[in-house]
């Protein structure tokens, strides 16, 4: 499949991404925003106790990193911030919790809106048993 076909599949879609604060996750977020700027929304699930902390974590650990420099140059500082605010929605939660640590009402609303789920998350508990 050509990369343009993949980008076309993401046009006007709402995407839930887990693991966006990790190395591959932030590269994935940047790539989607760069090659398919008409993606509707990127919901980024991050470990955080509340919405404010989730937003801060996304801004500092994802959007604030070097891979986003091309987008900053393309849109300028103000345009970049507006673009990110329009496209990126941080979600406070955790993949190891039931319903991803989200309230039932939020899960229901997201289930009506999300078109694609991309899981690049991993657990950082190094005491877990490996099961092949």
Automatic annotation (TrEMBL):
Which key words tag this protein in UniProt? Lipid biosynthesis, Lipid metabolism, NADP, Oxidoreductase
Q: Which reaction does it catalyse?
A: a long-chain fatty acyl-CoA + 2 NADPH + 2 H(+) = a long-chain primary fatty alcohol + 2 NADP(+) + CoA
Q: Name one Pfam family in it.
A: NAD_binding_4
Please list the residue ranges annotated as the Thioester reductase (TE) domain: 17-129
Q: Which residues cross the membrane?
A: none
Q: Which domain of life is it from?
A: Eukaryota
Q: What is this enzyme's EC?
A: 1.2.1.84
Is-annotated flag, keyword Oxidoreductase?
A: yes
Quick check: keyword Lipid metabolism in the entry?
yes
GO molecular function, one example?
Answer: alcohol-forming very long-chain fatty acyl-CoA reductase activity
InterPro entries recorded for this chain? FAR, FAR_NAD-bd, NAD(P)-bd_dom_sf
- State the Gene Ontology BP annotations: lipid metabolic process
Job description of the protein: Catalyzes the reduction of fatty acyl-CoA to fatty alcohols.
User: Which PANTHER family would you find in this protein's record?
Assistant: FATTY ACYL-COA REDUCTASE, MALE STERILITY PROTEIN 2-RELATED
Q: Which family does it belong to?
A: Belongs to the fatty acyl-CoA reductase family.
Q: What is this protein called?
A: Fatty acyl-CoA reductase
- Which organism is this entry from? Triticum aestivum (Wheat)
The major lineage groups are: Eukaryota, Viridiplantae, Streptophyta, Embryophyta, Tracheophyta
